[in-house]
Design brief:
The complex is a heterodimer of chains A (291) and B (282).
Chain A: H1 3-14, H2 34-41, H3 50-72, H4 74-80, H5 82-95, H6 110-116, H7 125-143, H8 152-155, E1 165-166, E2 171-177, H9 179-189, E3 217-227, E4 230-236, H10 238-248, H11 253-260, H12 268-284, E5 288-289
Chain B: E1 14-17, H1 23-29, E2 36-39, H2 49-60, E3 63-66, H3 80-93, E4 98-101, E5 104-107, E6 110-116, H4 122-139, E7 143-146, H5 161-172, E8 175-179, H6 180-190, H7 194-200, E9 206-212, E10 215-216, E11 221-222, H8 231-244, E12 249-252, H9 260-268, H10 276-279
Parallel strand pairs in B: 1-2, 1-12, 2-3, 3-4, 4-7, 7-8, 8-9, 9-12
Antiparallel strand pairs in B: 5-6, 10-11
Helix pairs in contact in B: 4-5, 7-8
Classes of the chains: A mainly alpha (291), B alpha/beta (282).
Chain lengths: 291, 282
């Protein structure tokens, strides 16, 4: 057995989900006995069988990734409850193992996966999708790029053809449920760890989160952004949100205004003061980047 | 403290791991610390608070980078994106040397985020050495590999762990981040004499030493980094210093992290093992 074959064999076993009592499963999905695989790969010692020794790595794998995903998505945990979240997380991580050197990206495919596996959030689908989008935006906004800002001096040279570039850390979310309030509440109760280390995880350390009541449905237009190192959520008016989204798609200013704001009977000169107010505010929050 | 080509001829003394719970204390009290070790992956991001905090640390302190996911021992090639980000961070921190583990943890582009021990084979040693050389050439900084704690041994192994370590570092011509706690943990889990391990380590290649605490279970020991260093590990440390001379030393404390002062005090116990004339100077 060469190195590649050995590592594939070990990984195949260690990435199998644990039993409910957090032990290594006795069989692989194809029916092969894990004990036999372990015996073939791992030396026993005077205290532990090959199975038990391999089990340590199986447990470490799941404790680590489950801990990380749980920390990243406390809002979803709070919505669906701990038990359902655990099932959902195991299924997701089993199907979408980490493809990044950093655990930061572990939840990057969760929304897409969840939309294909609605059974894990049955009864709360839409609010769960919104929560996952918000929590991923929060993770991304925390440490993504902050480009040099588009300055007020430069805004004096604006024309209809000006193309605004939005900061990479700015996320625009149109939500069917105002999940931002709920997430803020949940986060207050749960401090978040932002580091990885090379220490072994002794046991699953996920603090339990109390299940939250569902927020009432109601459209919310949200900007998730970073300012001076902290991530903020800001509610926007629908028109302002539409304009930012059009700008974010790379439309020139005039076209973005036309697409987002102009409706029959509404003239540009009427919305001028509003536009000025928005652009001043958005600039002061650093949402525009130099092209 | 003496320096060598594997730690950028640096003379760093005793440092501690930079951890988030200590930021406030460090920024406010500005304690005197010889150097901080950072986990590279925590700062291989595009922006935000992690880099802002790091820049603040760099204004006042010396920093050495320690990685957890390069996986020199994985059969697959190095992750180029990882290397590019790492190099960017190396330029930012100006780390005089860089470390990661002699282990594997990724298969077919999928990551375990764990430090899995190597099968001690000549094939594995060759692959790891090649990847270490490739990484060092790309990163343009001296590189040292750390021996990991292990809980399993493979039937296919053709040599002892310390022989494997020697095989790799000689072939790659790289340094060793000698983790004496890991030697202790593995010695208990596999039943070997930790001093025999130490005896075979080429002292001239020891770029840095790690010390840490661990947790003992009925059948095995886990490398949890959540306790003070125990006496048998200090004994190994003393022997390592005798062999290699005073060497940059770092205390790892990653879980149930006590106050900054407590961690720092624990780290500074390492000075007891320096030659008397260096104890005050370091």
């Amino acid at each position: 057995m060469n190195l590649e074959q050995l590592q594939r064999a070990v990984f195949e076993v260690t990435r199998q989900p644990l039993t409910p009592s957090e032990r290594m499963r006795p069989r692989l999905p194809d029916g092969r006995l894990v004990r036999e695989i372990a015996n073939a790969l791992i030396k026993p010692n005077d205290r532990m069988t090959s199975f038990e020794r391999l089990q340590i790595y199986n447990q470490q794998y799941w404790f680590r990734i489950m801990g990380s995903l749980s920390e990243d998505f406390p809002g979803l945990r709070s919505l669906v409850g701990e038990r359902k979240f655990e099932k959902l997380a195991v299924a997701y991580l089993n199907e979408c193992p980490s493809e990044s050197f950093t655990l930061r990206n572990l939840g990057s495919r969760l929304e897409t996966w969840l939309r294909k596996h609605r059974e894990y959030v049955a009864g709360v689908e839409r609010v769960a999708f919104d929560m996952v989008r918000l929590e991923w935006a929060d993770i991304d906004a925390f440490d993504s790029l902050d480009l040099p800002r588009f300055t007020a001096t430069a805004s004096g040279q604006l024309s209809g053809a000006t193309i605004f570039r939005l900061q990479p850390h700015l996320h625009l979310l149109d939500l069917a449920y105002a999940v931002d309030d709920l997430l803020i509440h949940v986060r207050r109760l749960n401090a978040r760890s932002e580091t990885v280390s090379n220490a072994v995880i002794e046991f699953p350390k996920r603090t339990r989160i109390r299940r939250s009541s569902l927020p009432n449905p109601g459209k919310a237009y949200l900007a998730v952004y970073r300012l001076q190192g902290a991530v903020y959520f800001k509610r926007l008016k629908r028109d302002g949100f539409a304009l930012l989204r059009a700008l974010g798609e790379g439309k020139p200013l005039e076209e973005a205004i036309e697409v987002a704001l102009l409706r029959p009977g509404r003239r540009v000169d009427r919305i001028g003061p509003q536009l000025q107010e928005w652009f001043q505010e958005w600039s002061s929050l650093g949402w525009f980047a130099k092209s | 403290m003496p320096a060598n080509r594997f730690n950028g001829n640096s003379d760093y003394g005793v440092g501690i791991g930079l951890r988030v719970p200590h930021y406030q204390h460090i920024f406010e009290k500005k304690p005197v610390v010889n150097w901080f070790e950072i986990i590279s992956e925590n700062f291989m991001v595009d922006g935000g608070l992690p880099l802002k905090n790091l820049d603040q640390i760099l204004e006042r302190y010396r920093v050495v980078q320690h990685g957890v996911s390069m996986y020199f021992g994985s059969a697959e090639p190095l992750n180029r994106e990882h290397l590019k980000r790492l190099k960017k961070l190396v330029k930012r921190t100006k780390t005089p040397w860089l470390t990661d583990h002699l282990c594997w943890g990724s298969v077919d582009g999928r990551y375990t985020h764990d430090l899995i021990p190597m099968p001690y084979t000549f094939e594995a040693a060759k692959i790891a050495a090649q990847k270490i050389r490739e990484a060092r050439d790309f990163l343009e900084v001296p590189l040292a590999v750390e021996n990991v704690s292990s809980y399993a041994e493979f039937h296919v192994s053709e040599m002892k762990e310390w022989e494997f370590l020697n095989e790799v570092v000689e072939d790659a011509d790289c340094g060793i981040l000698l983790d004496v706690n890991n030697i202790y943990v593995s010695s208990r889990n596999h039943g070997f004499d930790p001093f025999e391990y130490l005896k075979s380590v080429p002292p001239e290649r020891v770029a840095q030493i790690h010390i840490a605490g661990h947790t003992k279970y009925q059948k095995y020991i886990l490398d949890t980094h959540d306790h003070p260093v125990i006496d048998p590990v200090w004994a190994l440390y003393a022997r390592a210093i005798e062999m290699a001379g005073p060497t940059p030393t770092l205390l790892e404390w990653d879980d149930r992290i006590p106050s900054f002062n407590e961690v720092h005090r624990e780290a500074l116990k390492a000075k007891r093992y320096l030659p008397a004339q260096l104890q005050e100077a370091s």
